[in-house]
Amino acid sequence: MQNEWQGFQQVSDDVMLQKVDTTFPKKGLTEIADVICNLPKDKKFISKIEKLINDRKTMFFESNALDWAMAETLAYGSLMTEGYNVRISGQDVERGTFSHRHAVVKVEDSEEEVVLLSNLKNAEGKFYIYNSFLSEYGVLGFDYGYALASPNTLTIWEAQFGDFSNGAQIMIDQYISCGEDKWNNQNGIVLLLPHGYEGQGAEHSSARMERYLQLCARHNMFVADCTTPANFFHLLRRQMKTKYRKPLVVFTPKSLLRDPRVVSTVEEFATGSFQETIDDTAVNKKDVKTLVFCTGKFYYDLHTERENLGRKDVALIRIEQLFPLPTEQLKAIIASYSKADDFVWAQEEPKNMGAYSYMLMNFDLVKWRLASLKAYAAPAAGSYTRAKRRQADAIRMVFDKNLFQ
C-alpha cells in the first residue's frame, strides 16, 4: 500500500510530544454549527430530537458553552471540511450509548435517516457511521484493516462500555499495540472507551486503563483521558493533522457528557491546541503544599470536595495524555510549586488497576502517596451503595494524609 501511505513518516516519542497545529477558524466552526444545529424544515422529528438540536444551537450561538457531543461533532465536521473522511462503528454509535451523539436522527413518520454532518456544503470528506453487532473481535479487526488501507480516514471504533473491549483483546494485543514494531505498518485506529466509576457495577465502570498502559512502549500509541470538550476536539484533530499515524486510545466520559462544568468556549476550539497536562489555575501556588495528580472524570470529584472543604493548600493537576507521558511538562509544573512536599496520585480505580503502577514505573521524580480504593479482583462493586462508599473513601485519602494506602 505504498501509494496510500506516501508522505507519512515514522517517528519516536519526542516527535509525538511536539505540538501540532489543530486550530480551525471560528468562521468555519460557525458554518459547521449552522448545519448541524438545524433540522430539515420539511421533515417532522420527535420533540426530544428537536429539543436536543435546538439546545446545541443555543450553546454555540448564545451561551458559548459547548459540551462533549458538540466538540466531537465539530471535530468531525472540521476534518471533513479539510478533506478527511470520518468512519465510526460500534454498538449504538449512531445515537451513542449515553444518548449524547445523535449523529443519525430519524424522521418521525417514516423512519428516514438524516445525517446532518452529510449536509456540509464545502466538505470534501465523507462521514460514515454504522451501528455494528456486538462482536468486538470481528468489528475492531475489520476497522483496524480499514485504517491500514485508508490513513486519511479518521477510523473510530467505540465500545458501548469501555471494558466491552475485552472481547477484542486479541486485536489489541496482536495488532494495534505492536503492528508497527512487528511489520513496520503504521495505523491510526481510534478506540473510544467510556470509562468512569458511576456506581454501575464491574462491567460498566472500567475500560481497564492498566491493560493499555502495560502495552505502551517504543512510541507505539497514544493513550489519553481528557477532561474538557476542547481538549477532546483538538485530540481528534491531531490524529489526522500529523505526518504519521499511531493508534489512539481515549477513555471517554459518561456522566461528564452532561455535566454543566464540562464545557468549552468556541474560542478554545478555534485557537487552542491539545494540552497533555492541565495545571491548576484556581489556586495561589505559594499556598500549595499538596500536589494531587489525576486523570479524567475523577478530577471533578476531587474539585468538588476541595471546594466543600475550602482547601487552598491543595492543587489538582490533570494528566490528559498518559502515553507518551509528558514528563518534562510534569517536571515544570512540580518546580512551579516551591512549597509542595506532598505528592498524591489519586484514582477512582482499585490500587491494582488504573494508572498507579504505570506512574510508579515511569515517573519517579517524586515519592507518590496513593489515594485510591484498595486492591480488588473486580473493577467495581456490584452494589451502588458500596461503590459510593468506596469512592468517598478514596476522595478522603486525598485530603487526609493519615488515610493513605
Overview of this structure, please?
- The protein is of the alpha/beta class and 405 residues long.
- 35% of the residues lie in helices and 16% in strands.
- The protein has helices at residues 13-16, 26-36, 47-63, 68-81, 136-149, 169-176, 179-183, 209-215, 229-241, 266-271, 298-309, 327-335, 356-362, 384-399, and strands at residues 85-90, 105-106, 113-114, 127-131, 153-158, 190-194, 222-224, 248-252, 277-278, 290-294, 314-319, 321-323, 342-350, 368-373.
- Strands 4-1-5-6-8-7-12 form a 7-stranded mixed beta sheet, sandwiched between helices. A 5-stranded mixed beta sheet has the order 9-11-10-13-14, with helices on both faces.
- β10, α11 and β11 (314-319) form a beta-alpha-beta unit.
Helices and strands in order, then pairings?
Blueprint: H1 13-16, H2 26-36, H3 47-63, H4 68-81, E1 85-90, E2 105-106, E3 113-114, E4 127-131, H5 136-149, E5 153-158, H6 169-176, H7 179-183, E6 190-194, H8 209-215, E7 222-224, H9 229-241, E8 248-252, H10 266-271, E9 277-278, E10 290-294, H11 298-309, E11 314-319, E12 321-323, H12 327-335, E13 342-350, H13 356-362, E14 368-373, H14 384-399
Helix pairs in contact: 2-3, 2-4, 4-9, 5-6
Report Rg.
21 Å
Number of helices: 14
Q: How do the strands line up in the largest sheet?
A: 4-1-5-6-8-7-12
Overall morphology: globular
Strand content: 15-25%
> Which spans of ≥5 residues are poorly predicted at pLDDT below 50?
none
Mean pLDDT: 96
Terminal CA distance: 52 Å
- The SSE order reads HHHHEEEEHEHHEHEHEHEEHEEHEHEH
Number of separate strands: 14
Largest sheet: number of strands, sense, barrel closure = 7 strands, mixed
What level of helicity do the residues show?
25-40%
Structural class: alpha/beta
